[in-house]
Amino acid sequence: MDGRLERARELYDRAVLGGDVAGLEAADRGLDGVEADLALARGRVLHARFLDGQGGHGDEELGLFERAAELYRTIGDVRGEGEALLWVGVFHQVVREDEAPAAAALERALELATQAGDKLTLSYVLRHLGIAEHMAGRLSAARERLEESVRLRREVGFMAGVAANLVGLAYIAAAEGRREDAVAVLEEAGEIAGAEGAATVLGWVEEARGQL
Length: 212
Known about the structure:
Elements: H1 3-18, H2 24-51, H3 58-75, H4 78-95, H5 99-116, H6 119-135, H7 139-156, H8 159-175, H9 179-196, H10 199-211
Helix pairs in contact: 1-2, 2-3, 2-4, 3-4, 4-5, 4-6, 5-6, 6-7, 7-8, 8-9, 8-10, 9-10
């Protein structure tokens, strides 16, 4: 059982059996954290279904991410709020293809993840900010965002994510006229994705090779 649920049970017993109600506020905070974690996890599952082509859960997905962000904000969980806002931004960018709300959520997530020292979330934020820069034709800015995301992902050991970013960097290199660099980056991406069993990323690598 999650420790926060067990703690809430203990505080309930203290209140009902011992007359000590002072801990009920702490029980609420702990349960808000559990609810936030669950909402975020459910939202990610729905997003995975969308990416798999199952779709149809847009409003529900966004509602879960926004609820998680609200709860984390209420309990003062900066790291959690930053992660939830990352996914709010991803939703607007990927599902709705609406860059204005995506940028607002991602920029706030960038601030919070930096404040919390959450390198993994920061790597996701930078990836999606890089995607936005690439879509807007700002190749240099896109490359800088993705390169920093790669650095962070290597640091935390998220190698499948490194491979995913390298595919993006290969497209940028090709757009900048650096075809040899693009080929080399794709080679590294393929090696990492293969070693990590990241079949989807391997598909991206092969698609990029076909286009280059």
